[in-house]
Structures are given as structure tokens and as C-alpha cells.
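Reader question, answered in our methods column.
A reader sent in the components of a multi-part assembly and asked whether the whole thing could be modeled at once rather than chain by chain. We filled in our standard form and ran it. Here is what they sent:
COMPLEX SIZE: three components
ENTRIES:
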Amino acid sequence: MVSNRTLNRKPGFNTWLPYLLILPAVVFLVTFLLYPMIRALINSFFNYQRTKPKQYGFIGLENYKALFQDDDLLPSLLISLKWVVVEVGLQTVIGLMAALLLNRRMKLQGVLRTVIFVPWAISGVLTGILWMLIFDDNFGLINNVFEMWGLTPRSWLGNTSLAFPSVVIAELWRGIPFLAITILAALQTIPDEVYESAKMDGANRATVLFRITLPLIKESIMYATLMRCIWAFQSVDLIMTMTNGGPLGVTTTFALYMYETSVTTGNYGYGSTLAMLSFLILIGFTIAYLKANSYGMEDN
Amino acid sequence: MKTSWKEKTINIFVIYIPLIVLVFFVVTPIFWTLSLSFKHSSDIVSEHFTILPDPFTLENYTKSWSTGRISQYFMNSAIISISAVICVTIIVILNGFALSRFRFRGKNLFMVFMLMTQMLPRIIIISPLYLLMRDLGLVDKLASCIIVEIATAIPFQTLLMKGFMSGVPKEIDEAAEIDGCTKMQTLFTVILPVIVPGILTVFSFAFINCWNEYLLPYTFLSSGSKFPLSVGLRYMITQMSIDYGGLAAGAITAIIPPLCLFGYVQRYLVSGMSAGAIKG
Amino acid sequence: MKKLTALLAIMLAAVTLFAAGTGEDKGGDSMRHVSIWMDDMTEDRQDMMEEIIAAFEAKYPDIKVDFTGLPGDATDKLMLGFEAGTGPDILNITSKNIATYIENGYVVDITDMYAEQGNDAILDSAIESATSFDRDGGRLYYLPSGTNFYCLWIRPDWFAEKGLALPETWPEFFDDVKALTDKDAGRYGIALRGGSGAATNLEMLMYSYSGITNYFDENGQCTVNDPRHVEFCEQYLGLYNNYSGEGDINYGWGQLAGAFQTGTAAIIQHNTGSAADHYKVFNGDLSKFAALPFPKSLEGTRVMQRLSWDGFAINSSCDDVDAAWKFVYFICAEEGAEIYNENIGLLPCVASILNDPESYVNDPEKPWMATGSEVILSPDTLFYDTPTYMPSYSSTLTSEIDGLVQEAMAGRISCQEMLDEWAAIMTELYAEEG
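And here is the structure of the entire assembly that came back:
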């Protein structure tokens, strides 16, 4: 592989070429994401509360010490964990299913693919309001249909055991298209001959799926689920619109707690500290996840 | 090939029933939105519940277009999204090429760095970003949104593009190089034509994210005439009341451009290679 | 591929053209510019503002007002604008954020400018209320424009059906709620607000029940855990799930409005700001909704939260304070006042509008306005001193107390425990910010 590179006429230039290629990306990322992040890191060492400007000042590690005395922190982290596991798990399974189904040659294939795609094209807050119009106690679709059928209406977003599943369903609806399309795109890269030879060997559907299809698209699924985990951990808009973290905090995720601390309460110092915690958690998770999936750069 | 009776039965359970359930789950809320968009706002939250609009009205659509602001919002959304997405696509192609075709020191670092930038909560970095935009003189300029949306989109779209490029057999570029192509010529004349579906996928993914972005334009822009559609739709939500009908109509209107784009793009997802993965 | 490249090229060219075309021409004129941001705007409200601005610019031809209407609550965007020095010259104010702006020194002291106007167009009580936000010297930092009147929204037709008189006192209120509940018909006597905004609303009701008018006693102790408040909460929150729906525990305003407007709940607590919405939903049928003042307290007095006057303030970084002041005065006290307050649904602070039989306040199609104006102008109405002057008060209610109310509704803690903790938090805050 590497030996072939010697065929290039300008070896000096080609050593620098990859750096040149990634330069625009690096410039954008450093200026508009890394730099603000460093500013946020600095804020996390300050007493920075919008309602208390006179207390503004450097306080060293006080915000970090406060993490250990914060009673709301651990419950919200546990809810986030539950949220990410359930959400990404369901989205992956159903997204994979959808991709496999949509990969079949059938009538209306194009229409079906476009339809499955729609939820993703609707923004987070609109999705939240849309599902509120489905789940609401009084003017929601479900309860009114229940009444027509003579079933007892339930309080989907107000009952402590129903609120979390209801929000999960709404987020699932929004998340399926992303995984379905990513996996579908990956399925396109599997040549037909692979399936044909498997069929000749008399392999059944399950064997083909688990022994051939899944291993071939593993990398795509891995990246897609990793990104999805990172995004799900940080998502706030839908939950905020639908339940605002209630009832009794059963839908208060870590991201929502962070939002409330910084935006609602105006405590940007501690909010930045929570953001750093969030960052560390995600870094740790990502490293563990990539290790577990024996990720390396060996595909060069 | 003839399918046996037994296989047909299995097909019903393995393919058609899941497909119907899936489509039902996805379509119901869309159907509901459509229905709401044709109801009078006062009929949506009211004593008399109906599933289908009764009476049927187009007022939610005509109302928003008659003020003339919505066409401005549409135009702003288009300018922001298309400019950002074109830049993203170009940057990401270069990244993908570097990552899939070169070995270089710092490559792992670059990958990890890109992933890291995805882990910053938006609400925390938005105020430092705003101060930065002020220093750059970009506050209340569409460019501020475009730039940050480019930065936000790069990491994931790069991973996606890298995947597509890695899928192209390396023998192809080796052959081109033997024919005397430089690296860059290989990229543009040999690799790019093969990964058109990938480019279109990246293009449409990035487009949707930009199209729906709310926080950046809301924070950076401060002239009503520069707001994109995502911000324009929020005028229907106030602290005292929500215009559900108008929002439903707005949501339907807003998804048309991404939907058309995807409807066009999805054809490229059917390449000659596939004949059905679970056909077996 | 070629087609695609061509398409991209065309799009890029088009975008560049448009982007270039959107550059504005601001400089070069001799006009005095003032910028104004207003939040919680809708399309209709933006049209209304343009009307007011047109009238203003006709009166002051040398001033040009650059208006930006923002959707939703823009407090965060404004704070960022203040910090970065890119904020507007004029901004609209609510009682939730003004204390923070004053604390940060973001808004101009307008006491002298108001005094120079030399007339008393605006109610003294409104000015007094506005000056209470300055804890140091009672200076005026914003000019009040109008206020929401907090009330109960009730279904008069259901009261008539059951042969009930409208409640004058709290015991009558509780009896009526129970009598109006008919679960078989899908009707509840009340819908409670347990979600966002729960504490703010509960607080108003507690004080109107007890008749207490001081939030803190002379020792700086918060009065919210007074035994009468405990008694009230036990009765009021005890309605939950018996005479209200199960979902009420998480109701914010949207769901609460839904419960009332779909004919599920006979009574909800809100303010006159939602009247236009009820009017639309009930097709203007005034027998289906009416505003009722809170029942009288145990002491026989009518006690309300200190009126939270909305208004307008001027940014400290404003270059032309005189022009900005002219607009603020125009919209709060002059020609703009009636258009503005009628559109938003507020009671104006201008006495001449309140007393004008031809104004919208006394429109028989809007009886809630007259109800509100009567109560707020009545010398018998008492106001308790809601500590909105403490910058952290509103956010503390949302972030800490709302959750306590939910726990008390669910029976996880007793009302006594809820109020004791509430009082402890507020007492502590008072020591710091009072």
C-alpha cells in the first residue's frame, strides 16, 4: 500500500498535502468551537451569575467543589444515562430495521424512503409541540381517540410512570430517519455478489443478516450510534417543550439541568462547570466506546 | 425465481407487518400536523374535537404569506443554508480525501479533535461565540450564522464522507496515478464522480441541520429582516398563547425544501450495487 | 456529475448575489436613530409596533426608530447584548428582569426626565411600583406602560347550570370547585398549575387568602410559611386529583389553557392577557368565560400581588437618550399607550384611558378589562409586597420552588414542609439581596 505512494512525482508536496487538505477544517474548528470552549473553561473558574454582578470574580475550584454538594446532579445524570441507552438502543434497532426494509426493491420505494425521512426535517421545538398536540390530556390526539373508542384517557405527560416513555417515543420518531438513512447509505456499498454467493451456500435470512450484512456495515453503525449518543446526551429542546423536566423531575436530564442552571437561573459560572463535566463524561464514554469496538486507524 | 407459499407467509411477518407498523408510526404525526394546518386555530383547542378539519380552511397558509415576512424568512434561510452547505461540502471532501487516502502524523489527533468539538454544549459556548462575532464585526450579519454552521457541521459530515471515500477501492486511484494524475487530479477526476451519492447525502444532511438551526440566528442576528424561517416560525409562540394552526402550517411549509431535496437525492441512494439486503 | 457541478455553481452565484444585495445603507442621513427590541412578539404585534412607530416618526420627523421584534422570551439575548455592548437603545421590561438590569447598571435612571415632563399622566401607584425595583434609592429606571390583571377565569354557564353564585370568599370558592366537579361528564371543578410557574401563581393565591401584605416581617423572616398559608395549601393542593385531573401536576400555562378551553375545567387561575385567546376559542360567547377577582381574604380584604407593571427602559450605552426617552414616553404615556396596551391585552397605567368610557378598557365586549380596572383602582384593594425587586427572586421561584410545589401536590412532602423550605430559601435570599 505505502510502496505505491513512491509512484508520485512530488513526494515533498504529497507529505504536506494532507495537512493542506484539513487546514480549512482546522481553522474553522479552532476559531469557532475550540476558542469559545476555552472561554467557557475560564468561566467555570469564576463566580459568574447574571443576577449577582457584584459577586463576579475568580473563585478557583469553588464551582468544581460545588459539584460534590449538588443533590440534583446525580439523579439528572442517571436519567440522562437511561435516556441515552433507551433512546439510542431503540433508534438503532428500529433504524436498522427500517433501512433493511427500505433497501428492498419494491413499489413506492422512493415515496416510502421520503416519508420515513420527514420527521428529521422538522426542527426540535416543532417536534415537541407536535407531540404535545398528540399527548396532551385535553386537546391531544390520543386521549380524544381513546374517548371515541370508550377507553379511559391517561395523562401521558403528567403521570410519573408514563411521562418518560412518552418523551422517548417522540424523540424516537425524530431519531429513526437519521439512523435509517445512514445505515441505508452503508448498505448500498455492499455488492450484490456477496449476497448471491451466500445464497448459493444455502444461508438463510438470519445468517445473512448477522454473519454478512451487519459485519460489513459495522463501522457505519458504530459512528452513527456514537454521534447519536453524543447528541442524545445533549438534547434539550424536545423535553423542554413537552414536559419541562417534570413531573417530579422524572424527565430532568443532565442537559436540561445544565440549561436551567445557566439560562433560567443565569448562573453561567456553575453552568460552565457542568458543561466541563458533560465534556469529560462524553470524552470518557467515547474512548471506552471506541475501544470496545476495537477502533483503530487500521483502515488506512 | 418463484417464491413458495411458505416464503410468502414469512415475508408477511418479516417484511410487510413491520413495514406497515413503521410507516404508521412515522405517518400519524405528519397526518395530524396536516390536519391541524387546515383547521381554524380556535378549533384546535376547543370543546369539540374532530380528527379531520371541520370546517376546512386555508387561513393558516394564506395568513402567513399575506404579511410578506415569510418570503423574506424563506430567502434568508436559503441564503444561510445553501452558502453554509456548499462550503461544508467542499471542506468535507478535502477532509475525507485526506483521511481516507493519506497516512500522516496527527491524523488520530485530528479525528479525536473533531469528535471533541461535538461534545460542547451549545448553550455554554454561545455567549463566548457572540463576543467573538462582535470582535469580528459580524454581529447582525448573515455571515456569522453561516460560519458557525459550517464549523458545527464539519465533524460529522467528515466522518460520513470518510466512510464513503474508504468504500472506493484504492486500485482506482492507483491506476489513475500510473496514468500520470496528481493526487488532486485523482480526487477530482476519479474519486468524486464515483461518490456522487455520498456527496448528495452529505449535502442534504448538512442542509437540514442548517435549515432548522434556531439558536445561532436568534442569538447573532438582531434585525427582523434577516431572520430565517426557523426564527420566523417562533412568532407564533408567545407566553400567553400558541397559534397551533399557524405553527402546523408553518411546519408543513418549512419541510418542503428539505423534502424536495431528499426526494431528489434518495434516488442516488439506489445504486446499481444493491438488490435488497435481506432478500437472502 | 457535470449537471451537479453546474447546479452547485449556479446556486453559489445566486447566493453571492443575494448576500451582496442585503447590505444595508444606514449611514449618510442626518436623522437621529434609536433602536428598539421587543420580545414575545407575534406577526400582529409587529404590525402594531410599526403603526406606533409611524405615528411617532410623524410627530418627531427628525427621529428614526429601528425596530426589531423578537419571538419568545429574549432575556438571555438581551443580557448578551448588554454584556457585549451591542444591545438596543430601548427595550421592553417585565417585572421578572428589571431588577437584574438595574443591579447590573444596564439601564438609565429616568427619574429626572419623568419629572421634567411635568404632568402626571401615569398613575402614581404605577410609578411607585416601578421605583420599588431600585433597592438603594427609589429611583425610576423604567417607565411603566401597562399591567396584567391576575384573576380567576371561570365558566359562568356551568355556575348557572348548578345554580351556584360566583364565589366571594375562599370557603365559597372551595365549595364551588367541589360542586362543579362531575367526573362522569369529564368535568373538573378546577385545573391546577403544577408545572412551570406553579410557585408564582400559588403565592398570589396564598396571600389573597391570608390577607398578609408583607412578604418579609421586620426581622427579615419570610411570611410565606404562615399557618394560614399552610391551611390554604392543604385545601387548595388537596383538590389535586380529586377535583382536578391527574396531569395537572405538570401543567404549564399551555396545558392549563387547554383544560379550560376544551371544557374540562370550570376554573383556572391566570390573567387578562389570555382573554383574547379565550374569546377566540369560545367564539366571543361571554356566557362561557369570565374574569373573576380573587376571593376576599379571611380578614375580608382584597389582597393582590403588587402589580407587575410592564414598561420600557433605556440602555445605558444609548447615544441619544433624549430621542429614546421621547419614544418611551410616547408609547407609555402618550398616543402609543392605547394602541399598545389594547393589542397586548394589558390595563394601561394612563388614568385618562382607564377612565375614558370610549376606550377599550370600558368596551362591553371586553368586560374583563373593566373588572380589572375597577379592582386595581379601588382604594380597598391591598397589595402585598412581592419581592420582585430581588434580582434572583423570579428565577429562584422557577428553579427551586416549582419543584417543591410538585412534591407537595404528589404528597411526597407536607404543605408545612414545602412552605418552611420556601420561607427558608427566601429569607436567605432576602439577607443577601433585600
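What stands out: Residues 59-292 of chain A form a domain with the MetI-like fold fold (CATH 1.10.3720.10). Strands of chain A lie at 46-47, 57-58.
Send us your own complexes using the same form.
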